[in-house]
Amino acid sequence: MNKSQSGRYKITNKRSRPLTYEMAKPPYEIAHKKSWNSWNTSNIINGNRPMECAVEDLFIRKFLTGTWCTLFLSEIIIKRNHNMIRIAGIVKKSYDPIKYYFLIGYTEELLSYYLHCPVKLELQSAMNEDIIFKYI
Prior knowledge:
The chain has helices spanning 21-24, 50-67, 97-115; strands spanning 18-19, 38-39, 77-81, 84-92, 119-126, 134-135. It is of the alpha/beta class. It has a domain at 37-128: Cation efflux protein, cytoplasmic domain (Alpha-Beta Plaits), CATH 3.30.70.1350. α2 runs antiparallel to α3. The model has no long low-confidence stretch (mean pLDDT 81). InterPro entries: Ribosomal_uS3m (IPR026146). Belongs to the universal ribosomal protein uS3 family.
């Protein structure tokens, strides 16, 4: 078991590869030191719509990746609370705030229309260097 390499990053000679907090934690520490990227309670016994939630999460990630192109610096976190979907992440601080406000409104409106429930984006902006956790 200790020889498994899945989900781990190889150390470079000069330790020049930057890692974010999400990437720096090994897979076996998920749920102990790092949380899940999707939060929903539909996968419990007799939960409603477990497959639909997984497909919706995939759709949300693809939609945000296409709409926000290269602006997301971190993983996209999806949290479901009752009938509301909250999407969190860190975006690049490179455009005017007016463009971000437009993209936030556009994304919330379209996702609310497609998913038939209110969608709220909770974004923070940062520079590229701000999210580097360590170098390996």
